[in-house]
Design brief:
The chain is of the alpha+beta class and 513 residues long. It has twelve helices and 24 strands.
């Protein structure tokens, strides 16, 4: 199905909407990842309509009518789209060497479609039913499906600098009927109109440097703002995400920006979405395509080459889900096949999977490198016990505001406003004592601390349970002890006779038994 999209501004910007399947060279190499985002959580194992979790779907990138979302007040924007909203905003940095550059923006989403099974009566009329077995033996179930939609905007940069451009990216209502074999009945698929627009703007920051803003809004209205979510979803954009690219463009990473763009990157404001560099796997802090997704991804996200196909589960693990799908009974598989065509595809792929394909799902290590002997000046960013020439958590220090912090130092906790763990926010303004300086495998540093006024601080220290903060989340206290090795005191009463056998050790670094 194809609907032409309109643009304000007298046709200055070309707009192409082919429903689904449009192809532009700049986006072809990120198609697999973008599709994984589109169907993230679409249908969850065990892929049956009767499964309770498949009655609560559509959890990512959901843009609902504003009057429904704000019935209890405005929503608080965040960087991921796991909360319902009425808009989604992406801001990113791009370098453009030529003023006549064209920017391509592709907005992708799912439109809910209700599949209703109807049985044929003796009077020739149809009546809705929950399920129906046709003459060919196939079972058909009523279910909430979804139709992929996408709109591509082709926009000259000059136009974006003059107030931006707005395009319609919604979808019309529709009804499709399909007869079942031997006149047993029919399936009727109905879609409500989804109203939405996307606005694209650009502002200059420096010579050849611009901030690009892409904002998609649901402009529809619901009949009853107090209607249940399942009803409002019929007028929503689902799994909404955006691809941005173009010839001669260079986007900067917002996760790890180039040093000269770090300040500008911090000025980008993203709401209910998380833009990352996309394309073939590579190193670097710039790229030709940005993928702005409602789920948090790293730069250069990839679908594992070992994966034989989508399983649709959020944070899916192919081997586990494949094994569990194999264990479904024949009755459960029949229900899954009748639930949704994509569920049937998953079952067919699992049932026909060869031993060679399945063996590749067991695990892959991609970070192997030849072992090297390093000097103390070239210490690796990881720590191996017992003591090598790498980091030493109990004796290392890290410089914060010109003060070396290490074991024994006192600090004031100041968690970041954005990106901090929700539990850490409760510790804002509390004082703590550093127990260790820990080096992560990615080269980052964290401080393991115990809160000073925690009644169980001594016990937590003995067990090796700590709170972890980045150096920029603490402030040195002037009365700190000089950093030095710390041995956690053992509790005097009560002292556990032994560590629980069914509980793994957490955060041990001092070698205590």
């Amino acid at each position: 199905m194809s609907d032409r999209a309109g643009v304000d501004g007298g046709g200055h910007a070309a707009v192409l909407d082919e429903g689904v399947g449009t192809s532009c060279g700049v986006f072809e190499r990120v198609g697999a990842v973008a599709d994984a985002v589109l169907y993230e959580g679409y249908l969850l194992y065990p892929y049956r309509r009767s499964s309770p979790k498949n009655r609560v779907r559509w959890q990512f990138g959901v843009l609902l009518p504003r009057d429904w979302v704000e019935r209890d007040g405005p929503v608080t924007p965040g960087i991921s789209g796991s909360a319902d909203s009425w808009y989604q905003q992406t801001e990113c940095l791009l370098r453009v060497p030529r003023a006549d550059t064209v920017v391509r923006v592709r907005v992708r989403w799912l439109q809910m479609q209700h599949k209703q099974v109807e049985t044929a009566g003796p009077d020739g009329r149809y009546r809705p039913v929950e399920w129906l077995r046709a003459a060919d033996g196939a079972t058909h179930l009523s279910f909430e499906e979804a139709v992929p939609r996408e709109t591509e905007l082709v926009l000259p940069l000059r136009e974006l600098l003059l107030g931006g451009r707005t395009a319609v990216v919604g979808a019309a209502a529709g009804t499709d009927a399909e007869a079942l074999p031997d006149g047993a009945g029919r399936t009727v698929r109905r879609r409500r109109e989804v109203r939405a627009v996307t606005t694209v703007e650009a502002e200059p920051l420096a010579p050849e440097l611009y901030r690009l803003r892409v904002r998609t809004e649901n402009t529809g209205e619901v009949t009853d703002p107090r209607a249940p979510r399942t009803e409002a979803l019929r007028q929503a954009l689902l799994a909404t995400h955006t691809l941005v690219g173009g010839d001669g463009l260079e986007f900067a990473s917002l996760i790890d920006p180039p040093r000269d763009l770090a300040q500008h990157a911090r000025g980008c404001r993203n709401a209910f979405t998380f833009p990352v560099l996309a394309g073939p796997p590579q190193q670097g802090t710039t790229g030709a395509v940005m993928l702005s997704a409602p789920i948090i991804l790293p730069d250069w996200p990839q679908v594992a080459p070992e994966s034989p196909g989508d399983l649709h589960d959020a944070a899916e693990i192919d081997e586990i889900l494949t094994l569990r799908t194999m264990l479904l009974t024949d009755e459960e598989k029949a229900e899954a096949r009748a639930t949704d065509p994509r569920a049937a595809e998953i079952l067919d792929r699992v049932d026909s999977m060869t031993r060679e394909v399945f063996s590749r799902l067991h695990g892959t290590i991609r970070s192997l490198a030849p072992a090297q002997t390093r000097s103390a000046a070239e210490r690796p960013a990881w720590w191996q016990e017992p003591g090598d020439d790498g980091p030493s958590p109990a004796t290392d220090t890290v410089l914060v505001d010109g003060v070396p912090l290490g074991g024994g130092s006192r600090v004031l906790l100041r968690p970041r406003v954005r990106g901090a763990d929700a539990q850490d926010m409760f510790l804002d303004g509390r004082t703590a004592r550093v127990s260790a300086v820990l080096h992560d495998v990615d080269g980052s540093v964290h401080l393991a601390v115990t809160v000073e006024d925690d009644p169980a601080a001594e016990l937590h220290g003995w067990y090796g349970r700590f709170h972890y903060f980045r150096p920029d989340e603490v402030q040195p206290l002037g009365d700190s002890d000089a950093p030095g090795p710390v041995t956690a005191p053992r509790p005097q009463s009560p002292r556990p006779p032994e560590r629980p056998a069914d509980r793994p050790e957490e955060g041990r670094f001092d070698g205590c038994p």
